[in-house]
Amino acid sequence: MNNTFYLLGLDRIAMLFSAFNKQLISSIIVLSFMSFFSKAEQLIYFDITEKNANQALINFAQQSQQTLLFSFELATIAQSTPIKGYYSTDFALRKLLRNSGLTFSKNNDGVIAIIADESPVEKLIAVTTNDNRKQNIPPAQVSIEKIAIVGSRTARRSIIDLPVPVDILSFQQLKQSGQTDIGNMLQAVAPSFNFSKSAISDGSDVLQPATLRGLGPDQTLVLVNGKRRHQASLIHINNSVGRGTAGTDLNAIPLAAIKRIEILRDGAAAQYGSDAIAGVINLVLKDDTAQDYVEMSYGQYGQGDGASQQLEFNKTFSLLEQGFINTSLSISDFQATNRAGQDGACIYQDCISIAPEKYFTSSNNEITANRQTFEIGNPKSQQQAVVINAGYPLALGELYGFASYSKRDNTSAAFFRTARDNSTNPQLQDGQATVNNGYLPKIATSIKDMSVNLGYAFDLDNGTAIDASYTYGKNSLNYWTKNSINASYANFLRYHEAQAADDIRTTIPRTAHAYDLSLSLQTLNLDIMQDLDWATLAVGFELRRDHYQVEAGEKYSYFDYNTLDNQAQYNHDAIAGIQGFPGIAPDAVVDEQRYVRSAYLELEQQLSSDISLNSALRYDDYDDFGASTNLKVAAYWQSNNWLTYRAAFNTGFRAPSMQQLYFNNTSTQFLVNNDGQLIGQKVATFRNDSNLARSIGISKLTEESSKNLSLGAVASLSNGLTITFDYYHISIDDRIVLSSSLCSGENTVLDQALMVENVDKAQVFLNGIDSTTQGVDLIATWQYPIFQGVLDLTLAANFTDTKVSQLFTPKSSALNNLPVEQVFSQHDIAIIESWQPKNRINFNINYQQKNWLFNLTFNRFGQYSVLDGDKQTYSAKLLTDVRAEYHINESTKVYFGSNNLFDVYPDKNTIGNSRQGQIVDDAGNTIVDSDGVFEYSRRSAPFGYNGAYFYAGIALNF
User: Fold this and answer.
1) Which of 706, 710, 698 is CA-nearest to residue 735?
2) Number of compact structural domains in the chain
């Protein structure tokens, strides 16, 4: 038996049920149950307890072997009455729906539609009894689109029938979180998803690493309408969660365009290919069933900064009468926040150290200096995005496509450069620094993301379904460094060009274009599905091309002007490249591409009425590292009418990303040394095929491989209570990591390379660790009518633990002679094992009564530990979110709320701080006494460190 979802077109359903108002219907889902149906009136034995009407109607269809059409949204807010005994179908249904606010109507073919008493029906779900057929519905009146739920190419009547756990998050659920972007929305409602924040981590500040089940950002596959989404061009090379990985920019697609988000919490590389080790996130775009609306909102943090303004618009247009174009527009403006502590270090020259972290000064400049020199918090950001999703019936099927474009401009800060540091702010002839009062470099990024998809899906007369599509996507990132200088150029102007101090300050450039990144993906897909008597068979073929480019910045951004005058370099050395975020030189540009060929086979069998088996086999061939074959076997068993067991085993892989293979640059990274001091070092990242990598024996990167076991159960109890429990165990071999910073004295070849590059340390990508991740997911949902309204409770929890089980270096390499902990340090291990919370618990209370909707959410972030010179464990925190909506009329609603209502912050930071100290004047007065500028950990902050956020908005339907 194959249970199948169908979405029936509005116009054709309205023709079939002409007695219904066309405005009452938006979509129909058909669920199949194997049985026969007799038109003759007969008594049937029913045994259905009091429960949510949605589950009660499904049980009724099973026991009566009768086709039902009903609204999922309508049924979930209604409660049935119990029935037990022999009844006719009509009498039993009337008894079941008594006092529920629902009634029913039957058409000439005997199909029963459940509707609300004097209320519009928005969506109907068809529960049918025939395998893979629409019972008693004439084919000419049916327009069918199977609703693809990620994790199985054969759609089902509900996600609890899947042999793997899948979360389906609706637009409304995401919106009610009160968050302003997709990444934070998912974190608020899906505990297995994390969206960690960091500060002064270059591009990682604006493209936050998104992780599933505690694994890396690149170990989760992202789809849009079931099609592979391209990655972001950025790779995280600084010390943040996801170091050495490249993920997908989830925030490039606005919520206004999203119908629902599906999260498959299980390995799926055998179904979807590389990256799907932790799971799959599928963004489903709005279609012709969406409600047209425009919405405006405003929010601000309790400290008075971080103001946000958003405008969202969605409307569906008719395409040549038969088709549709759904258009979404989003414009947002987010102002920066700042939670930096005071700068306790000396800024000017006339400041004397009298003890560790204690200074004396008589300088009026030092005494009156602004001590708020850093900006640590959310970056300033503006985004414009447009998404189009379209479909048009053509011949045997449908021509479909979607396109998206977004542009996000961001500004974040680097480390403050003082007026007393000659290496970053050289002293000129008048004894003053080039920039008199020091400067705070700003990193300006412009992120452009676009994608285009075109496909044709059709059915042949023999029941074969074919889907052919082409997808192109590209993510580009342009870096500019502002409010900064190239310190070596200041020396060049003074010593080589003999310019006066005032002229240097007037003419020295303060802005430079650093470099550009881009990554594009082209995909050709052919998917074929056939319903057989004994199974559903799906086969597919895929051809992909990855194209990665790094374009050099302008000369001023990277050049060392000291080299133009050896004497100047010897006596007055200053750091080359623009400070804060130096550029990339022409000899480090990248223009690389690769091709991937794939084929898969997927089989779903209904072994009995209670047992289903899914299996998949996939072959991927990469022209840069070779081939990989992976399999998956999953099953579910419905042991009785309320308890279902599920299990899955799969192998998986993740191909080296283009960024891991080819990215190379030089950057300033700030790390804590053995003395506990935060120091800046010039660190060069060498591409995997570089001469240095080959000379020290770094092997060509190969794929990561994984084994994933999951076991779970679903209990659908009385009174609408559903509980799901899933255990998972994921072992990953040959994980690709970014090495620790390798310094001179370890290898002669490395020493020479460091000298040539004029850097302090080097880091390389290599297959260097094995890891094991295990944990459990628990979700419980319950609905109950109370006080003339509906109470909806959801408890969701994730407990996960990742351990690095083995470290290794390439055999016969120069690194093999070093202690492996030196190549991949405890600091790097801690990023993988402990920088994310080991548990997350979310409890959501939703209550709707007439025109009001109230939402209360408790989000608990568990303990996590950061190693940054020393180790600090940050305690668990409970955040409280509240929201209220009021529907003024059918087309207008207003809402207001708060995230983190009680202004909860992470524990204060005690490690890896900077610019801590006490300064006193000649009268003994304390000018400043600071523990450092990083009051909160800049390395990892699971829920940020901005405090309470308040917002309000208005939405108009039209």
Assistant:
1) 706
2) 2
